[in-house]
Specification:
The protein is mainly α. The chain contains five helices and four strands. The strands form two sheets. It has a two-stranded antiparallel sheet with strand order 1-4. Strands 2-3 form a two-stranded antiparallel ribbon. InterPro entries: RNaseH_sf, Tc1-like_DDE_dom.
């Protein structure tokens, strides 16, 4: 699973979430440990709590991740199901997918794909997406 954050003149690092030992997939505890604790909680400590943190409907955003987010007083948004067109980060993911299709080759390994995704993420300028985050 890949995670990235976007806001007004803000872009997070790109996170390739790793599954935790003994688990078959990514779940909310991995999201909590690899995204919320190291990136989001410190960001909201710096910015203040008047901002709204928008997540999509992924199951990893619930469970073990929900209560710690609430305990940090980070306001969320009750996201309508199946409405990616409203979420600004979805515009970035769509652009990245289209750019991947334009590559002169197909990445043959996870590491090749990660490298290409990171190159694309590095090109993302949050100012280009202001009209979505406004």
């Amino acid at each position: 699973m890949i995670w990235g954050g976007l806001g007004w003149d803000y872009k997070s690092e790109l996170v390739f979430i790793k599954k935790l030992p003994g688990r078959r997939g990514i779940y909310s505890k991995a999201y909590l440990q690899q995204v919320l604790q190291p990136i989001i909680f410190p960001l909201f400590n710096r910015l203040g709590l008047e901002y709204i943190f928008i997540e999509d409907g992924s199951k990893v955003h619930a469970g073990s991740a929900r209560l710690p987010r609430l305990s940090h007083s980070i306001r969320g948004f009750k996201w309508p199901p199946s409405s990616p067109d409203l979420n600004p980060i979805e515009k970035v993911w769509r652009w990245m997918k289209e750019e991947l299709k334009k590559l002169g080759y197909v990445p043959k390994s996870i590491e090749d794909l990660k490298r290409e995704l990171q190159k694309l993420w590095d090109q993302v300028d949050p100012r280009d997406f202001r009209h979505y985050t406004e």
